[in-house]
Each structure stands twice: as structure tokens, then as C-alpha cells.
Amino acid sequence: MKNLTPLAQTYVDRFSAASGSLPGHNSPAVAALRKSGLARFASLDFPGRKVEEWRFTNLTALTKGIKTTDAPANAALPAAEFETPHVMTFVNGRFSEQDSRLDRLPDGVKLTSLAAELDVGNSALLGTEADDKRAVVALNTAFMEDGVVLNAAPGVTLDAPILIRFVSVAGTGANAHHMRNVIHLGEKATVTLVEEHAGVDGHAYFANPVTDITLDKGARLNHYKYQAESADAFHLANTDTELAEGAVYENFALSTGARLSRNELETRILGGGAESILNGAYLMRGTQHCDTTTITRHLVPENVSRQIYKGILDDEAQGVFQGKIQIVPDAQQVSGDQLSRALLLSDRASVAVKPELEIHADDVKCSHGASSGELDEDALFYLQSRGIEEKTARKMLIDAFLADVLEEVSNDDVREYFAAVTARWMDKV
To answer: Which residues form the SUF system FeS cluster assembly SufBD N-terminal domain (predicted)?
Structure first.
């Protein structure tokens, strides 16, 4: 048997005892799905740096196990960062009805918890994962607790964004949460979804969310994520999206939290006229590590993908961007663009960038670019020469660096929300 890392072995050893308290434990189909996930995880283990896709992100601190937290037990939930009439809240991996507002959803929008679906044996909504080689996804399948199940009927347009909150607090004995979200938009449906991931300061835990998204013909999902986990947390997220003909997927991820985080997105474009828009910003300080990894697969002709990611790194923080655009044979008249830029505020900060284009068709238009550097000293001197204090001048230049990527957020309210978050972060620069 393969020698596993300590945390992986702990999961394997306790699966039999834990499975009896997980949602859907009375369903043979759900039980079989979980056992399949565990078997794949046991054969893979947590990825090490010898795995090419993980060579810039070291999980050793996680795989040795998470220490017991010293944070106050049962602390109050952090206040929501975004205002909307539709709110679904999960606390320590479980749906919290008392902290949610779901009574104003329009007809045609169904929002339920994964736990409720699994308890009635609805494993079919998760599909099959037999060929999936991602260890953290397999682990999620084995131990998934709860999450969002969102279905929008054809033609529905939601009046306001849905806010999904995932909050981790100390005091329950659980320091890992494996959330599973399933989102399906019917033909020509339009939904805006905002995720907040938050944790109480001082609380150490592992967040392992997986999101499966299916967009039917002409559907549009505006999907925004704010990752503000505790500074002692580990956050490893996977988002898989399939786009049918004419569908549009807009994703923006803003990351300021966690000791170590990774936001991995795999997008499969299955229809002509579809558009994938992946953007984001990461703001890291101290010894934080933030990894953004994307793979966009153009599997048919005549569609578009765009990516812009920007990072600001202070102190000894580390950033990673790995972006791959894959265009299969016969996927002609495809456009794919990718850009990564990082601003280093300290000579101890660092960023690793690996952009890739894998093109097997000849009638395409693709580009990728990556750059990193310090603040422009000439621009800083110019602003100071005009009577602007150095700290204020630095903030102005940082704000200008972020401005164009924030403009990619098409929803005005979310753009203002993200701008306020970045302004608070910059107050500490």
C-alpha cells in the first residue's frame, strides 16, 4: 500500500467511522460515490511539488496536520460583506437557516443544500468522476458535507445577486470543511452569484470547496468570489464549468485571506459563440501564498476566452499564476487571451508565472503575457514632487495598477464592493 502523508492517512483511517454521519449515508448510490472518491484519494495522496501543476505550491504545512486552534469558541459570525436580499449561509460546513434569507427568490430559481439532496439519495447531480485525477476533488467527494445546489429554469433572470457565505468559526471540533456546490442554469437564464469565504482570526482550518457549473445554451452566470479566510487557514478550491452554445461565464476572484490558497478553474467550452471571462486580483502580505491555476479548453470552433489576473505582494508573500489555453484540432476561429501582472512591494516578495498555449488548430487568435515588477520610482517621485506624501502616492499608484482589472467586473454593485475591500487592504500598505 502506498505510504501516505500524515493528513491523508488520517482521512483514510477515519473514513469508515465518519461516513455514517455524513449526508446521504443511507443511500447506496451516495455511499458508492464516496467510497470511489476515497479510493482515488488514497491512490493519489495530496499532491507534492513533483506534480507539475503543483511545483510552485508546497502543501507540506497542511499535510502534516492542522494544529488545534486557540481561537475563542463559538465566536460571532463575521458580518456579511455584500448586501442583497438573497443570502444562503453555511457555518462550519453546514447550512444555517437562521443566517439565511431565501424567501424572496423568484419562481424558476431553486436553491437547496447539498446535504438535503444527498439525504434523499440524489447522487446523480454529481455525475461521474472515475477519470478525475485531482486528489483534493476526490477527497471532497469522499467527505463532502454540504453546499449550494442552484437550478435556474430556462429564461429566468434573477433580480438581484445571490450571496453564498461560507464561514468558519472555532468551537465545533471540526477543522476541515469539504463543501460541494452544483450550479445549473437553463437555456437563456441569467444569474449573478457572489461567494464570501470568511473565518475568525486565529482559527486554523482547511477549506476544500468544489463547484460544478453547467450553463445551457445562451445562459449567463456572473460568478464573483471573495476569499477572506482566516490568516491561519488553508483554502484549496476547484471550479469546473461547462459552456454550451452562446453561454457566457464571467468569473472574478478577489483573494486577501488564508495562509495558503489555491483557486483552480477548469473551463470546457462546448458550444460556438460561448465566452469564458476569467479575471481576478490577489492581495497578499506577511508570508501568505496565493496560487491561481486555470485551464480553458476550447473543444469546438468559434468561441472566446479572456483572462486577466493581477497580484500585489508585500513582505514575504508569494504569488503563483498558471494559465493554460488548450485548443483542440478543428476548433477553428477561436480567440484566447491571457494576461498576468504582479506588483512587488518588497524585495522579499516573489511571484511564479507559467502561461501556456496548447494550439492544435491553425485559424485562431491567441495571446499570453506576464510581467512583474516594483512600483515605478519615477512616478512615485513625480507625485511627491507635487506635494503628495509618499504613503498617499504609493496608494495612488497601487490603486491605478488594480483599476483596470476591477473594471472587468460587469456588475456595478459588486465592483464597488471589491473596490472597498481593496481600499481597506491598501490602508495597511
So the answer is: 8-163
Q: Which domain, by its residues, includes 406?
A: 377-429
Q: Residues of the chain with pLDDT > 70: what percent?
A: 97
Measured from the Cβ of residue 356, the count of other Cβ atoms closer than 10 Å reads: 12
Whole-angstrom Cα distance, residue 35 to residue 319?
A: 35
How many domains does one find in the chain?
Answer: 1
Q: Tell me, yes or no, whether 332 lies in a domain.
A: no
Indicate whether 93 belongs to any domain.
Answer: no
Residue 70 DSSP class: -
Q: Which residues have C-beta within 8 Å of that of residue 361, sequence separation ≥ 6? A: 301, 327, 328, 329, 330, 331, 332, 334
Cβ contacts of 148 within 8 Å, gap of 6 or more: 88, 111, 113, 114, 164, 181, 182, 183
Residues 114/115/121/125 CA torsion (nearest 10 deg): 10
User: Is residue 43 domain-resident?
Assistant: no
What is the DSSP pairing of strand 304-313 with strand 180-185?
A: unpaired
Q: How far is CA 141 from CA 153, 177, 211, in A?
A: 26, 12, 11
Q: What is the pLDDT of residue 73?
A: 56
User: pLDDT tens for residues 40-76?
Assistant: 999 999 999 899 999 999 999 999 988 766 555 556 7
| Residues paired with 372 in a beta bridge | 342
